[in-house]
Amino acid sequence: MIKALALVTIWSTDQERTVAFCTEKLGFEIRSDVDMGARWVTVGVPGQNDLEMTIMPTDGPGFDPESAEALTTLVTKGVLGAGALHTDDCHGDYKQLKDRGVEFLQEPQERPYGTEAIFRDDNGSWWSLTQRREGELDFDKPWGEPPA
Hints:
The chain is α/β, with parallel strands linked by helices.
């Protein structure tokens, strides 16, 4: 029986830049960084040891040139990949990340599931920074405006 999700992949047009974004701006730690014919690098949230994120180049091994170009186009448009990061202080983390140069599309807003801010990573993908609401979800609460 499956017990846990252990590894997720994000695609990057510049693996080194994405590693720097994740570690320097988001505060992730490098979990592995090895050469296996190509660079294999994973990062994760400090203290959350059961989940890692591998950062894979869009022109990496296993792709023919046409597929690599198509993947690069999708990543560059910001339409491939997104994620949600949970926090216990959305407003505080929003300010800290913004001060580190993270581009936010939406300031913290109240949602039925909690407080959420939306940012872009270095490849243009959207991420949710969410402080989850305690207790039951409040679906009577307005959803607010989507990010521009």
